[in-house]
Design brief:
The complex is a heterodimer of chains A (508) and B (490). With 508 residues, chain A is an all-alpha fold. Chain A is built from 21 helices and two strands. In chain A, helix 13 packs antiparallel against helix 18. Chain B is built from 21 helices and two strands. In chain B, a hairpin with a 2-residue loop joins strand 1 and strand 2. The chains are: A mainly alpha (508), B mainly alpha (490). At the A-B interface, helix 5, helix 6 and helix 7 of A face helix 18, helix 19 and helix 21 of B.
Chain lengths: 508, 490
Amino acid sequence: MTSGEFLLLAVLALPALGALAVAATPRDRAARLVGTIAAALTLVAAVALVAGRSPGWTATAPAVRPWHAVDLPWVPGLDLRFHLGVDGISWPLVVLTALLTLLCCGYCLWRVPGGGSGRALVALLLVVEVGILGTFLALDLVLFFLFFEVVLLPMYAIIVGWGGDGTDPVALDARRRAGRKFALYTLFGSVLLLVGVYVVVAAAGTADIGALTGGTELSRSTQLAAFTLLALAFAVKSPLWPLHSWLPDAHTQAPTVGSVLLAGVLLKMGTYGLIRVAVGVAPEGARWAAPVLGVLAVAAILIGSLVCLAQTELKRLIAYSSVGHMGFVLLGVATLTATGIQAALIGNVAHGIITGLLFFLAGAIKDRTHTGALSDLSGLRETAPRLSGLLAFAAVASLGLPGLAGFWGEAFAVVAAVESGGALWTTLAVLAAIGGALTAAYLLRLLRRVTHGEPSPAVAALGPKLAGAELVAWTPLVLLALAVGLVPTLVLGVAEAPVEALVGVVAR
Amino acid sequence: MSESSLVQAVDHVALLPAYLAAGTAVLVLLVDLLAARPRATVVTAVTGAVATAVGAAAVGSGAERRTFCVGTDCSYVFGGRAALVAALVALLVLGVLALSGPLLRAGNTPVGEYSFLLACSMTGGVVLGAAGDLITLIVAVEVLTLPLYVLVGLRRGSLASAEAAVTFFVVSVVATTLTLLGAALLYAVTGGLHLERLGTLLTDEALLDLPLTTVAVTLVVAGLAFKVAAVPFHAWAPATYDGAPLPVAAYLSTASKLGGVIALLAVVRHALPPEVTGPVLAVVAALTMTVGNLVALRQRRTVRLLAWSSVAQAGYILAPLGALALTAEADARTAAYAAALAYAVFFVLLELAAFAGVVALRPAGADGGSLDDLRGAARRHPWVGAGLAFALIGLAGLPPGLAGLFAKVTVVRSLLGGDAGWLALVVAVNAVIGLAYYLRAAALLYAPAGEVTAPAARPARAVAAALAVATVVALVVGFAPQVVLDLAGG
């Protein structure tokens, strides 16, 4: 076994074993510590994957050229192989997942949201991590589906078990409803994925994503059917307007760590799947559906922004802002150009960093003031300047200020749409740009409401201090938002070759 | 007919599992009569069930054995698949015996009769998988079902139990009559009764065009659809399950349902023309899962929820057969049968675990109760609660219940391999509806108990053991589903 194969297996095995170890550790605090250590080791393994990568550029090589791969038989009767691999498209997301999980586990060391034991929460976080990492690493369609499903129930349990605020029946009911909506919507997406996967497998006779990329084995009608099913599946997860309605409820009701993982990486499973599976396997279907996808993406941007302008609740506003931001990502994918897909990838990572930070901050504000209503929050700057400053930083990063991470994804999605040419794409680009302006508007409105003005009674009681654990959890995200903003090649450098290869076969 | 064929050489090795099962029944009766000690009776039944399972596995591991043959047509064919069915039925009987511990100890149920009837039913199940002609098949199904009329009504002094028994009896007898009439008409049309011979004869276009053939095929399929509680022949199931003692309900929804599925598979696979049965079964499957799931959404009683869910599950089992008419390839057809059987195996495993969980969480000898009785149960009994939640999630087809997930994957794969994409979509949408109620039940187990603080009685050891074994097996086949797929395809 080479070191690369070992690392790949370790990235999945560490959180899985970690979850078991956490469940087996009787003492709550010790268990949370064990979980955090497992998450930290996972991050180390995930980062180490980049070492020893072989760019392997040859004319005849397939479109997916993983740096490292593990390929073991599992269930031949279902065309399922345990086939993992990592390349420049998946690696940034793998690292992001490992990082956010570590931060969430670390955060749980300091504060456990009410509702259940911290031990169980950390174990569930690690299981969610296994599912997400598996989805990003799978190079077998059926395995991809399997990991896609793994995430569902643990996330449901996190929302229902630890979410919401208060234990009164109304709050209980609200978070149960949010959890159920999340589970049913997401399962609806995954069963479509299952059917789509086997439409492809039945037609092509293989489930190997590497062999399938380019769609050379599939007829046009199969590709259209497969792309429709797969795109619908990923549209639920991403989420794409009008299939987004599970998201605001789930993100609002989930505990802070749940929201961070949901917004930070769970949504990326959808966009990653769209790029790697839907576009890769059925490029002809993608070309056929691209205008529809583009229109829906822009609709998501505009509607998401407009809804945000009318939001009165902090977490709900951030949740809805995800709809708009993911709209930019999907617009990038819809252009099917190298620029667009690169924009989508960096947009994915940036959104994960920034929205993760925003949810951490929103959670901190809600924990302190016990309210999320914008009307009850004002003057945060006066009593908690550091918190307020961080919120301003995150909001400004989110609205896409050049020099911060959010800029590249949104700007280049628009650029890619303009480059695609034609009346439709130009119109879409213009509308998306207007959406970008609206994004700035609602984030600035948020800042004005929350940080400026006279301190409200809830805010007046706050002290300026931040806990050490909070700083530890937030600092990496702040630094990454800066780093990705200033040096986008951190993400784009590794992604360039695989994106070129993908676009090469898609444009064929 | 020549002289030599009148005296048949009987292959007793092939019949060994059936002998073992029937011997168990007789022995249980004798032990109950002579020793009159409940413990001895149950031990005999348990030993017999184990011996039957082992015997079936041992005989099945060799080459296929045929006996009671006329020419090339045989009435008793014991191959790998028959062995799988026989062993599975014997193990399910074992599981049900374990679940019956609290019920029998409560003293309201005669132990000897109970064990004897279960062993009789097991004999039917063991023969069923090996049946090679329609009469053997129908007799085997009846031997499987007949003891259940009594078992369902065995809860003394319970009106619901008696009602359930009568409902079940009437419906089941009607179903059998239909099947028998269908078999007779098939004989009238073709002059054959052996499944494989019927299959060959019914490829004849002229025969297929006869209205009588259509009527005969319809009657056989409809009669067997009663046994698996497929819509529109499902109405008896929820009432019967809810009235029956819990372990008997478990038996009804596992072994008895498996029997119906096997019988249906046998006639559809070997005897009846797939062009005729395929579209009918596709519609039946789609209706069964949709109606079952939708009605299950509204259930408030635990056993009724499980009953309706098991109606829906029958739809998933039948779904692969719905692709039969659409595909002409022999490979895809074989895959469809294998998928249906594999789904059935995964299902009975999880269903048994679910019933074991419910039995473990209820007081000894009680009925299933309402769903609210299970509120917070997993907080009082973490292991049992986790086992039940695992089984429910598995039935919904989601990780960590990988066995259930792979079951659904098998069905969807066979449907898409057989060009029945619409049915695959119906299965997919139904999986979502199914999750709604499975999730509700599973979440209820972990909900805060509120005011209802039921005493935390320890579950009986046998029940806990059955739950543990079923859960562990489900976990193992969840990670190695190829084992089940190989057995079902063999």
